[in-house]
Specification:
The chain is an alpha/beta fold. It is built from 10 helices and 6 strands; from the N terminus they run βαβαβαβαβαβααααα. Helix 2 runs parallel beside helix 3 and helix 3 packs parallel to helix 4. GO terms for molecular function: DNA binding.
Length: 214
């Protein structure tokens, strides 16, 4: 089968285009498609792909948190971020989460193939548009992560809160009781010292957990 690839993006038309680009290469095949981060995690567990091409901004579970969990559970899987965002917070978030590459959606199609081959050689790949100063800042290990005090689960809950989900809806998505979700909400507010939904939403957007334009 050659190189096995999973596509994760919430726009089917884009996934169709990516599939067409990738499968023009005889040794590459798309074995699964996901429309959000949670589906991408499930496909990686089931299909064991070599590469995941991951959108950064998706509802439900964003690409950053999905990447963080995928690389923990699938050490041999390489994640490449494919995003419209060149903002440092998204680039930094994806690379710190464990992504091996980051390219922009307006890059030439050949750059995606180059990125796949590069990461499979166990090398990082960042497209030219966001290299230079930004890349130097990303590799500065002393740079503090503004959201490092939140657990993975709290980040998931915070994204869903910012996207307008109720405690019951969040519980159904994450398989938690409403009471447990409320506990997470309180812990998030305490850690961030924020007390209102607008403040939490603003923080989630600033931290790259959601864009609210999915």
């Amino acid at each position: 089968m050659g190189i096995k690839i999973v596509l994760a993006d919430d726009h089917k038309i884009l996934r169709d285009g990516l599939r067409n680009i990738i499968e023009k290469n005889a040794n590459m095949s798309v074995i699964g498609e996901a429309e959000n981060g949670r589906q991408a995690m499930e496909l990686c567990t089931k299909l064991k792909p070599d590469v995941v091409v991951m959108d950064v901004a998706m509802s439900g579970l964003n690409g950053i948190e999905a990447t963080r969990q995928i690389v923990v559970e699938n050490a041999d899987c390489k994640v490449i971020a494919l995003s419209m965002y060149s903002d440092k917070r998204f680039v930094s978030g994806m690379l710190k989460a464990g992504a091996f590459g980051y390219i922009l959606k307006d890059s030439a199609s050949g750059e995606l193939i180059k990125a796949i081959k590069t990461v499979l050689a166990n090398q990082k790949y960042v497209c030219q548009q966001i290299s230079g100063i930004i890349l130097n800042e990303l590799v500065d290990s002393s740079q503090e992560n503004a959201e490092s005090g939140l657990s993975m689960r709290e980040k998931e809950v915070l994204q869903l809160i910012a996207e307008g989900k109720s405690s019951k809806e969040i519980g159904e998505i994450l398989f938690l009781s409403s009471k447990t979700v409320d506990t997470h909400r309180k812990n998030i507010m305490d850690k961030l010292e924020l007390r209102t939904l607008p403040e939490l939403t603003k923080y989630a957007i600033r931290s790259g957990l959601t864009t609210l334009d999915n």
